[in-house]
Amino acid sequence: PASRGRGREIRRGQCTQTPLRQGAGTQLCLPALCMALTAATVTYWRGRGRCEPLRVVLACGGVRFVGNYLEKKGDMDALKASGKLEYDQVPLVEADGLNLVQGTPTAVYLAQGCGLWPEMPKEQYICGHILAATQDARGPLVSFPFHLDEQRCLEELQSPKGLLGRFAPRWEALLGEGKPYFLGATPSLADCAVYEVLDFVRHVYGEERLKALFGAFPLLLAHHDRVLGLGHMREWRDVGRKEAFLDWPEYAASVRATLGF
Asked: How far is CA 41 from the centre of its chain?
């Protein structure tokens, strides 16, 4: 369909956040940096995978981005030949004249560019450990499209070392002091990352199942709804993603075709 054409731009507004201080010196980046990132091109397949946390940062930060979607092996071969992939891996985000690769440094760079990265080292550490935890927590969800076994995925999420067994209780506790966001009054990369994990559960199991699974974590559910209101996150979830993404089996087949297996 035309809505899935290569390079379709997802129109977004500029980041409008201004530096705020609260608590023990938490501060968003300087205004010049906050406004610096206004556009990006994101290259990946038509699905969540390891790329969706980066799209969520852009969406929450109000940054315009274009989706460049891999569909066949020739697309990946051409991308490698272009020299844009430092390690021959995607996702790739092109922004500020840079070819950003590897999930963690790319997420931090994007967060810095749209006012979602704190200035103080302590708050940077909090963002960093929450981001790293989300990467572990979402592992079973990343694998889901390749086996489509909802019960298997759920058991992994509910295991003692999984999302519901290990990570959700910690995140709930971090929000337990009446804070709207993990750093207090100001949203950050940490909020984007945790939101994306819950949104991934919603994507696989639906809204009602999300609420049931996280019934013991009311602060996380409220946080999920709060982050959905940042930037153009709701528009990306309800419009942009639906137009761009394939169904799970089609997405998995495109990944396999592109990688040649």
From this structure: 15
Q: In what order do the strands lie in the sheet with 64-69?
A: 9-10, 64-69, 39-44, 92-95, 98-101
Instruction: Return the DSSP state at 3.
Output: G
Q: pTM of this prediction?
A: 0.87
User: Does residue 175 contact residue 223 with C-beta atoms inside 8 Å?
Assistant: yes
What is the CA 47 to chain-centroid distance, rounded? 12
DSSP string, 15-47: P-----EETTTEEBPPHHHHHH--EEEEEE-SS
Distance CA 124, CA 119 (A): 7
pLDDT tens digits in sequence order for the chain, 261 residues long: 333 333 333 333 333 343 332 233 333 333 333 447 889 999 999 999 999 999 999 999 999 899 999 999 999 999 999 999 999 999 999 999 999 999 999 999 999 999 999 999 999 999 999 999 999 999 999 999 999 999 999 999 999 999 999 999 999 999 987 899 999 999 999 999 999 999 999 999 999 999 999 999 999 999 999 999 999 999 999 999 999 999 999 999 999 999 987
